[in-house]
Amino acid sequence: MISHNSFRYVRYAVCALLLLLLFRLIRDRRPKPAYIPADIAQGDPGFLTSYDTSNDLHAHSSVYFIESSAPFKRIITIGPRQACAIESAARANPLKKIIVLFASWNPITNPSQVRFPDLPTLAGFGNVHFRWLDLNRFAQGTPVEAVIRSDLLHERPNGAEYLSEILRLVLLYKYGGIYLDLDVVTLKTLDFVNANFFGAETERLVGTSVIGLRRGGFGELFAERCLDNFKYFDEQKNIRNGSFLLTYQVVQTCETLTLQEILDNGCRGMLQVHRRSIFHPFDETNVGMMFDPSRLEEAKDRLAHAMTVHMLHRTSGKMRVAGGTTGYQLIAQNYCPRVYEENSYDF
Question: Where in the cell does this protein reside (predicted)?
């Protein structure tokens, strides 16, 4: 029979062992650097140089992300969910260049200007490149050159979002390719028969979170027509005018009255509009099911045919993966496993 004193010593030993294990766990779980490490550029000589001068990348079929908050904020922040979007695109499209563009008026030379803990992880993918989008010269010669320089744009409370709506079209106008929002998770390779494509976001609107336009020809002409309309940005108050503008231009081009007609009958081969289930399986009213363990099967059904998932960060940004397996947890584990593994405690 164990004496009272012996039992007490055993209890002390167990507590000491648990404390030692906890200490090692805390010690080994070193926090990732919050800012860009100064030596990160070693793996990519063109790191954060102007994309306009990145001739080695221009010849490739590329997928683009744009971070447009620098003109409006002192510090640029790329969180785990945005990093997940980048990793998923890189994994799903190994033969494409994944270009992450930081839009600003001045070169980003101070590492403390960008809070991006997952950058070293993403820099490990050979097809991911980080470049500066020089606002001083990027839109020169386009219909929106004056808009980008306008004080009215930079005084708007939604200026960063509005600037992003403009820049994505300038980017595709100049270089062609595929644009994705930083809250879009890619599930499948983004290869399409028609390189000029869009996705229905609602029954009446085309979304702007996933756009593909071919360089030159019809793709360039379509982007230019959209940019011509963006010249009147100061008359628009709703940030979603990007969707309204794009939908108007698509319907005009296809010579139809409604988006549904294009979904049913096509657009004479000029462009393709994919159904909601392909790029936008969720909207503001139901994206919450991606964070609800009790609705996992329902979420999986909606994901069954999706190539991308627009996570609608403005709606779901404060929702968290916790309390059981959820749809978002499932796609993060499978499509951005490195980022998720390093951030599962705060995803």
Answer: Golgi apparatus membrane
